[in-house]
Amino acid sequence: MLNKLSSVQCFGGQQLRFEHSSKVLNCTMQFSVFLPPQAEQSRVPALYWLSGLTCTDENFSSKAGAQRTAAELGLALIIPDTSPRGDDVPDAEDGAYDFGLGAGFYVNATQEPFAKHYQMDSYVVDELRHLVEAELPVNSLRSIAGHSMGGHGAIALALRNPGLYRSVSAFAPIAHPSSCPWGRKAFTGYLGSDPKAWRDYDSVEMIQAGKPCPPLFVDQGDADQFLPEQLGFDALKVACESSQIDATLRLQAGYDHSYYFIASFITDHLRFHAQYLVD
Ligand SMILES: N[C@@H](CCC(=O)N[C@@H](CS)C(=O)NCC(=O)O)C(=O)O
C-alpha cells in the first residue's frame, strides 16, 4: 500500500513522493517517482536511480534535471532512499556520513545490529520493484543507474540479477568497494570482516569472475575529489576490457563528484537506457 505524500506537475508529467511500510527493512520508507506524460495513456518502462552517501530520494529528483528527457522518452524514474530510516534503526556509532543512515550500500547486512533493517539489496530488487509494478503505471521493462555508492549499487545489483535489468549506468561508481576505505568500512560493518563475504557485492570482482552484465555505461569526472582513493575507475576499466561485457566508460575532463556533473550528462544516460527499454 502506497501513501502519496506529494504530487507536482513537471514537464507534463508528475513528480511524486510516496511513503510505505517496508517489511524487508522493518521501517517506514519514502521514495520518489517521476511519471512521464505517456504514463497517462499506458504503462511505461522504469529507470531505477540509486543515490550516493548522505542522500535521500530527493537529491536526484531536485538536482539532476532528469525529468525533461525522461518526459520526452516516456521513462518513469524510481528513486529509493539510501538506507532504512527511523528512530529504532541503528546508525554509525559516531554518526559518520559513510556508514549507517544514508549509507546502506545496497547490500543485505548479515551482521548485528544491522541485519534487522539494512536489507537494501532485497528492498530495491524485490520489495520496491513489486510494489511499484503493482501500484504504478509502469511495465516490467526496467534498467538501473546510480551515483557513487549508488553507482556501486546499480552495477552490483545488475550483475547479481541476470536478466532483471535491461541496461545499467553509473556516475563515479564505487566500483571496487573491497579495495577502498568507504567500501571496506561498509562491508566490514554490514557483511563481516571476511573479504570472501564481500565478493558478491564487488562489481570489479564479479566482472573478473565472468558474471554476465547488461550493457554498461559509466561517466567519471577526472577532477572528482574521491577518484584517487575511493572509486576504482581504472580497476573497472581493466575488468571490462578483459571481459565480454558491452561497456562504455568515459573519463570527463574537469568534472567533480557533484550533482553538477550528473546534471551535465544525465541526458546521455537516459538516452542510453531508452534504447534497451523497448520490446
Ligand atoms: N559529505 C561527504 C561527501 C558526501 C558526498 O559527496 N555525497 C554525494 C554522493 S557520494 C552526494 O550526492 N551528496 C549529496 C548532494 O550532492 O546532493 C564529504 O563531505 O566528504
UniProtKB/TrEMBL annotation:
It catalyses: S-formylglutathione + H2O = formate + glutathione + H(+). SUPFAM superfamilies: alpha/beta-Hydrolases. It comes from the Bacteria. Its EC number is 3.1.2.12. One of its GO terms (biological process) is formaldehyde catabolic process. GO terms for molecular function: carboxylic ester hydrolase activity; S-formylglutathione hydrolase activity. It is an enzyme of class 3 (hydrolase). One of its GO terms (cellular component) is cytosol. The active site is at S148 (charge relay system), D224 (charge relay system), H257 (charge relay system). Keywords: Hydrolase, Serine esterase. Belongs to the esterase D family. Serine hydrolase involved in the detoxification of formaldehyde. This is S-formylglutathione hydrolase.
